[in-house]
Amino acid sequence: MAFWSISSYFSLLGLLSLILLHPIITITTGIRLHVNRKPSSTIIPPFREAPAFRNSNTCSSNVKDNIHIVMPLDTNYIRGTMAAVLSILQHSTCPENVSFHFLLAHLEAEIFSLIKSTFPYLTFKMYRFDSNMVRGKISKSIRQALDQPLNYARIYMSDILPLDVERVIYLDSDIIVVDDIAKLWGVDLGDKILAAPEYCHANFTNYFTDTFWSDVNLASTFEGRRPCYFNTGVMVVDIGKWRKGGYSLKVEEWMALQKQKRIYQLGSLPPILLVFAGNIKAVDHRWNQHGLGGDNFEGNCRKLHPGPISLLHWSGKGKPWLRLDSRKPCTVDYLWAPYDLYRSSRVALEE
Fold first, then answer.
1. pTM listed for this prediction
2. 282 near 195, Cβ under 8 Å?
3. Cα–Cα distances in Å, from 208 out to 141, 151, 303?
4. Which of 221, 290, 315, 335 is the most exposed place for a label (fewest CB within 10 A)?
5. CA dist., res. 117 & res. 94, Å (int)
6. DSSP SS3 for 328
7. What distances in angstroms separate CA 314 from CA 6, 64, 92, 333, one per listed residue?
8. Taking the chain, what is the end-to-end CA distance rounded to the nearest angstrom?
9. Strand 167-171 vs strand 234-238: parallel, antiparallel, or unpaired?
């Protein structure tokens, strides 16, 4: 598989479109019980059926070698989720060994049916995230989308997932993978609990308020560490170590303090940074080309950073499906378009 770089930006656009035509798969499907069978009032968009992808001859048949991917599943972002799943399967050497774990605010039969009809051979389970787990713990942030309870579900993966899932890759819904996800899965965590690309050139102090930094006790939180920003939308997590160390509670303690005094402005990111920044396994930056959705206020267009790319991430306010539908896309949004399975999509790539 060829890696992406800024120089091959536009030439690969055509390639990505053609890849969707390749023949493809067979996988099993699973779902957790107690799905809500009542009719849903939510309008769920229609999607085309994805091709099927098969393992290569080199793939293991041992279930212990499966790759576990956790993603939130919100109806407002479901178009992004479907595109993300397709991209992961399409670029995997062993797609049948990839298991998906979807976190939802409500388990609904319509959502299950939608996933099964779009990906008939996908191995997946659905889990309800109880919003009561964060009731009274969420502080208002700079963008409403960051205040949704499901945005905090990543903190509680150790409470939601079954005990036999010991390691996961957590991915946001606004990503596209253009490399074999097994490479990210294979990162050596060593004694660390979490792995992610670090961005030590970013001004770390900006992620916390003057109230935080002016308090000597709070500012000493990072003593003995070299804290760097990392984006929590792409993480490899040792769930067993997270559970054993009680890290959900550690993050919650910072959320509780935030309710008392304003120590940060964003949603679920800062409390995770407070616990882990400076103590994670660094991953190559190619695994999170983030910020493609612009900032949290305007969602303006941004260019790709130089260098190879394995994962594109539309973090920020602007989402590619919304900008494409509005006929006001950014150039990078055309890299997302070939993975869009939305049945009514009429994206004109020549624009």
1. 0.85
2. yes
3. 12, 19, 26
4. 221
5. 21
6. coil
7. 17, 32, 21, 9
8. 28
9. antiparallel
- The phi and psi torsions of 123 (rounded to 5 degrees) equal -90, 115
The burial class, CB within 10 Å (0-12 / 13-18 / 19+), for 72 is buried
**Which is it for strands 194-199 and 229-230: parallel, antiparallel or unpaired?**
antiparallel
Q: How far apart are CA 326 and CA 334, in angstroms?
A: 13
> 314: closest CA among 326, 296, 341?
296
Token pair 């992620």: residue: 207
Q: How far apart are CA 120 and CA 211, in angstroms?
A: 51
Nearest to 165 by CA among 100, 259, 256, 230: 100
Report how far residue 35's alpha carbon sits from residue 113's, in angstroms, rounded to the nearest whole number.
11
**From the first residue on, what is the mean pLDDT of each consecutive set of 10 residues in the chain (351 residues)?**
47 44 36 44 80 93 92 93 98 97 93 95 96 80 67 95 96 97 97 96 90 94 93 97 97 92 86 96 96 81 92 94 93 96 62 40
